[in-house]
């Protein structure tokens, strides 16, 4: 994994190569409660301070008084990956693969509700649904990315609560709209991502049938924005599952790309995913 530190000029050079928009086209991640999963402070709030749901939030970047922070945000906010880019107002990922139903690349929400949890994402603008064609268009237009506020609540679960966003790579399997197809994307060599996060998250490669212990990469919390370039080999399982899977193996039969936040009940924060692209250095 190569991590680019935003304040330095050379980050721009490598990041643009990593995420060049001209190029073609029941999870239970283990968490040590002693780890500091939060960013020390946040300049990435996406709600009005008058919001009833988020009365402790600030306007985006409003607390930043450092001149250098402006250039940092410009880099993160304008860079575009070749799969999906919020600042380009991509309403779906540009995968270039579809099973014929024209449903690949659309974002959707997943959470712990099927496991009796009560975690949720509060969106900055009204949405008619959290999945389906056009569902995320208002959020993408507002955030120039996908941003929201998460609230974790384990409910009746016996493990840590979670919530996340994802998109299917190829859409539904032929003849069965309920089962997403898996496709070989190993030629991508990995993924790059630019984001803001109040709390660490897990960047996951989702195969077909699995027990939830999938190859993933831990995205560190970052209130100033981070760009990461991650080869398939750096996606690894947490280790509690019954089946052994590697990142390169799942890349040969990838169903979905997911970003999951999992921590303790009562934890909350904000996120903004700005772009996702193929690995390229």
Verbal overview:
The chain has 281 residues and is of the alpha+beta class. It has 4 helices and 14 strands. Strand 7 and strand 8 (176-180) form a beta hairpin. It is globular. It starts with a strand and ends with a strand. Residues 4-18, 21-36 and 40-69 have low confidence and may be disordered.
How many DSSP H or I helices? 4
pLDDT under 50 segments (min length 5)? 4-18, 21-36, 40-69
Rg from Cα: 18 Å
Helix/strand/pairing category: alpha+beta
Order of helices and strands: EHHEEEHEEEEEEEEHEE
Classify the beta-strand content into a percent band: 25-35%
What distance separates the N and C termini?
11 Å
Q: Could you estimate the helical fraction of the residues in percent? A: 10-25%
Q: Main beta sheet, described?
A: 7 strands, antiparallel
Structural shape: globular
Beta strand count: 14
Mean pLDDT: 79
